[in-house]
TrEMBL record:
InterPro entries documented for this protein: DUF4396
Residue span, DUF4396 domain: 77-217
Keywords of the record: Membrane, Transmembrane, Transmembrane helix
Transmembrane segments: 6-26, 38-56, 113-136, 157-177, 189-212
Listed Pfam families: DUF4396 (PF14342)
Protein name: Membrane protein
Keyword Membrane: yes
Amino acid sequence: MDALEIISWVALAIGILSSLVILVDVIRHPQMMQIMNVVWPINGWFFGPFAVWAYYKWGRLKAKDNNREDRRGKPAKVFLSTSHCSAGCTLGDAVGVPIVFFTGMMIAGSTLLAHYIVEFTAAYLFGILFQLFAIYPMHPDKGMRSALKEAIKADTLSLIAFEVGMFGWMAVVHFGLFSEPPKPNEATYWFMMQIAMILGFLTSYPANWWLVNKGIKEAM
């Protein structure tokens, strides 16, 4: 086992442990917005201890049993909006990877292109679904169709921005970092994906800021 593989296993273990820490707490202190009970643990997987810190600093303020005043500023609220988007993308990407791997799928002779298309499609579906679970409970009187339209408007740009960061890193990994890119049955692959998710979050944050400023998306 080389040094990178050891680092990969450690990073994955930290991510999983962070997710479990958050999961245990959201079970004890459920969020007012139910979808955030799923969002926070997912973000723990790639943001690790930072996600745990952000959850206890900002996420716990939105627990049903919280009595503290919510004094989060706009940067923190946009952070939560981006976290919500990122969790949907991450789940979609995690579903898409094994589909491509186990089917041996290639598009135009490229495995990477197959990953791009399948994972973007899955991420988009999960991203819209996550938005729908956020928007519809806030405005049930407007109906499901209206909520779906709002979800598409709110998530499309932020999701594309997320995938730009993520896919960019995947291209670097595929063409630049390794003579033979790691495969999904290797720890190194998922460590690279953790980095991809972080970069996707960073490229999505400005898009979410703009969407919130324009009133297209509500700050969470």
